[in-house]
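Priority: medium. Attachment 1 of 2:
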């Protein structure tokens, strides 16, 4: 799915340069469940942004299913993100004045789906994440775990094959965290690919492969797999 070669991403502030992420070679296969771990500021979110088509590298190529992601026209890259990539954020990014149902309908509306089908698909997704009785609740009327499940339902609206998750369990209680991770396990069984940034050892342990970043670079061992 992903092939990164010769990648460098540098942040510049005044006269200082900080290498946010670099790798000579990194491959992520279709159907993998990858956890990206490391201390704060080690480049985890930068890597996720590079994979998601949101942050172009200063050098090197990010290949996604055989296409050079950052050589695509902006509108093509935007459509690819909309149609094939789902993003899960620690902060949820729900629209506060919309109901759970309306929040899940947003990507369907943007994709030009007819209103009746939008509603049917959004209802089905909220039922899937256990929120059938919370359709008309606004984010402020939901618990933190419920908000994350609404965000997850929204992520699934366009049936993405790739899910990029940035600290998806960071604000959750143990019960809600387990619910989200169980859903991720199901996504992998369905053939999706997950790349998850996390500080949570329990979450990282669920992945089949773990990449450790230190100061923007992959650890010398490159990755830790369940076979190790």
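Attachment 2 of 2:
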């Amino acid at each position: 799915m992903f092939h990164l070669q010769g990648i460098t991403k540098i942040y510049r502030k005044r006269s200082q340069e900080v290498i946010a992420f670099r790798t000579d070679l990194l491959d992520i296969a279709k159907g993998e469940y990858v956890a990206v771990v490391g201390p704060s500021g080690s480049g985890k979110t930068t890597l996720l942004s590079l994979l998601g088509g949101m942050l172009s590298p200063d050098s090197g190529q990010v290949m996604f299913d055989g296409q050079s992601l950052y050589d695509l026209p902006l509108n093509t890259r935007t459509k690819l993100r909309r149609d094939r990539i789902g993003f899960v954020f620690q902060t949820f990014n729900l629209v506060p004045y919309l109901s759970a149902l309306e929040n899940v309908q947003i990507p369907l509306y943007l994709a030009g789906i007819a209103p009746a089908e939008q509603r049917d698909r959004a209802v089905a997704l909220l039922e899937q994440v256990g929120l059938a009785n919370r359709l008309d609740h606004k984010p402020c009327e939901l618990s933190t775990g419920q908000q994350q499940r609404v965000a997850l339902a929204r992520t699934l609206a366009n049936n993405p094959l790739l899910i990029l998750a940035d600290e998806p369990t960071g604000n959750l209680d143990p019960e809600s965290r387990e619910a989200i991770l169980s859903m991720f396990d199901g996504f992998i069984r369905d053939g999706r690919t997950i790349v998850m940034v996390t500080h949570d050892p329990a979450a990282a342990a669920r992945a089949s492969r773990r990449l450790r970043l230190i100061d923007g670079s992959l650890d010398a061992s490159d990755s830790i797999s369940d076979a190790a």
